Amino acid sequence: MLLCGVLLFGAGGGTPSAFAAAFPDSSPAAGEVKSFVDGDFGQVAAPAAISKKNTAVTADAVPQIIKAVSPSVVGIIGKYTGDPGSGPDDRYNLTHGSGIIVKADGWIITNAHVIKGLKNAVVVTSDAKSYNITASYLDEVSDLALVRINAKSLKPARFANATDKIQVGEKVIAIGTPISFSLRNSATVGVVSGLNRAVDAAYRLIQSDTAINPGNSGGPLVSMKGEVLGVNSLKYAAVGVENMGFSIPADTVRYIMNQLFQYGEVKRPSLGLELEESWSAIVGLPAQDPLTVTKVVSAEAEKAGIAAGDVLYAIDGHRVASLVDINEWFKGYKPGAAVKLLMQHDGDIVTRKLVLGQGDPLIGGGEAEGDGDAEAHTEE
């Protein structure tokens, strides 16, 4: 049964922190980190009593990867101002999430729903040092945010260059701050369960069975190469639903970060149209049905001769069958770019030339992929 996935944006949807104080965590020695970065995993030496003909046992790389990546993962905690029931003196009414260091001079990527509505937020690094946030830039459409702390010589995480090479079944690690702030830099291991998932998001997500709990949001999903594949953001939570977490892929994270660094906001191209997906696309059938124009919003679209009831097949020769298809394709475009739209108008196949405006991307309706009473939740 297909049910509507309800997104609970804002830090109020998270689990309150049990502790506000930071507890020291052990940090890897510099030599240990360097040996991993250099790819020196080594092997477990065979006991002398065992024949040399026996195959050497390869050391498990997971602990070394966690040691190497953990210094790039932070915890973020503060008072959520969106809850009208919280009193000004309630110092324990806190919420928290996770973040990933992206620049040595204090820039951190996290989820927008972790930061939004958070007052007096504090960032705690893996070596138990606390910092106030000095700047923040949010993009709620992608659920990503950049924050900065006054710190130097931090260890940035390495993001994967080609997330299109991820394979289903590939082992992955999630690192973050689940449930309680005293559990910072907790790690869980699982596998990639699916790719290119359209689940209550403007962009496609990575699905994994790695345990992602409240507080993990903003933390990394890490490959066995020690590279960040995505930012953990969303999960399905209900009786009978187990280990269905979703992460924003590294290529989307990089796209959003570049825009926030350059403009302080994300300047997205817009068709100036309201579009409706086909029934097949909404329920997830493997079809390539076109989208239908329900409303012409911009003067440019009207000038191009586009009208309500027209059907959109392709943009610059690229077939689009869902709203997420368009959002993904538009990562390579800027407002002001000219595109060619293959459309159907009054029964005729036509080509329309359109100059893209600037605005919010197209986001699908309330339908989500899930069985039973599952609901999609953002996880702080």
Offer a concise description of the structure.
Residues 361-380 are annotated as: Disordered. With 380 residues, the chain is mostly beta strands.
Structure report:
The protein is mainly β and 380 residues long. It folds into 2 domains: 1-44 and 57-266 and 368-380, Thrombin, subunit H, CATH 2.40.10; 269-358, Roll (Pdz3 Domain), CATH 2.30.42. It has 7 helices and 23 strands. The protein has a 6-stranded antiparallel beta barrel with strand order 3-4-5-8-7-6. Strand 12 (220-222) and strand 13 form a beta hairpin. Helix 1 (30-37) crosses helix 2. The protein is globular. Keywords: Hydrolase, Protease, Serine protease, Signal. Residues 361-380 are annotated as: Disordered.
Write the layout of secondary structure elements.
Blueprint: H1 30-37, E1 43-44, E2 57-58, H2 62-69, E3 73-80, E4 94-101, E5 107-110, H3 112-115, E6 118-124, E7 130-139, E8 144-149, E9 171-176, E10 186-197, E11 205-208, E12 220-222, E13 228-237, E14 245-249, H4 250-263, E15 269-270, E16 273-276, H5 279-283, E17 291-296, H6 299-303, E18 311-315, E19 318-319, H7 323-329, E20 338-345, E21 348-355, E22 357-358, E23 375-378
Antiparallel strand pairs: 1-2, 3-4, 3-6, 4-5, 5-8, 6-7, 7-8, 9-10, 9-12, 10-11, 11-14, 12-13, 13-14, 13-23, 15-22, 16-17, 17-18, 18-19, 18-20, 20-21
Helix pairs in contact: 1-2
